[in-house]
Amino acid sequence: DLGERVQVKSDDEIGQLAKSFNSMAASLEQTEENRRAFYADIVHELRNPLTVARCRVEAMMDGMVPPSEQELASIHKEMLLLTRLITDLRDLSLASNGQLTLHKQETDLRTFLSRIVQEATILAQKKGISLSFSTGQIIPVLNIDQERINQVMHNLLSNAIRHTPNGGRIVVDIKEDKKHGVIVSVQDSGTGIPEEELESIFERFYRVDRSRSRKTGGTGLGLAIVKQLVELHGGKVWVESQLGQGSRFSFSLPLTS
Ligand code: ADP
Q1: Residue 203: which of 16, 5, 22, 28 has the closest Cα?
Q2: How large is the angle between the packed helices 69-96 and 13-27, nearest 10 degrees?
Q3: Which residues 6+ apart lie within 8 Å of 220 measured at CB?
Q4: How far apart are CA 193 and CA 164, in angstroms?
Q5: What is the ipTM of this complex?
Q6: Most buried pick, 7, 93, 96, 141, via CB within 10 A?
């Protein structure tokens, strides 16, 4: 049914993206309704930052707004969001087609995670959030794709920072677990997630509060990517949360992978 597909005319980034849409749409449950909703979401998500940036440029061209560093920074921010959306969509489509290959190497998870947490501390500090890393245990060496687990952590940590008010607290911990292998958790003292939404938040483009999330700079794809990448490693991801109290996102990594 090519009528429902994006026509691919070039092989540049946009061409690649169109291909990604098509293969993702093909991998979705083939109901008319699903497909329509999926395209509508993508169009909406891409058009939004593009429109904001275009209007700002036009306002400058028309002389309505004088060019300034601040204006350029706003436009740049929208461009960054577009770039992130494209990268995220491509990763998701590769992963859901089984085309995303992991480059695994033996990793001391404790040292690896503590460096990632260290890097995120600067972001957290800007909001007066305390970010700490705790593990008393000795964690066995794991075979992981460092870049991809870094991406998982980055998504979980930036969500935690975004949904935690000033002065809050985020704790990352790792522990060994008989059943699951190793479990990594990111716990925040943020807004929490309503119980009825917990099941849906790992879906593409799902947001508890659309307008608010967009303002805080999310793409709506972060958790869907986390899920795919963790499952590619043979692990699982889950969340516990209490509205107004905070959330705890955990993922497991098997010992032998
Ligand atoms: P987004 O880019 O919107 O953050 P995600 O897939 O990363 O997309 O997250 C989906 C939704 O899950 C978010 O819009 C938000 O409503 C909710 N969410 C994710 N992480 C947290 C968190 N730590 N605290 C509260 N809500 C969260």
Answers
A1: 28
A2: 40
A3: 41, 45, 204, 205, 206, 207, 213
A4: 12
A5: 0.97
A6: 93
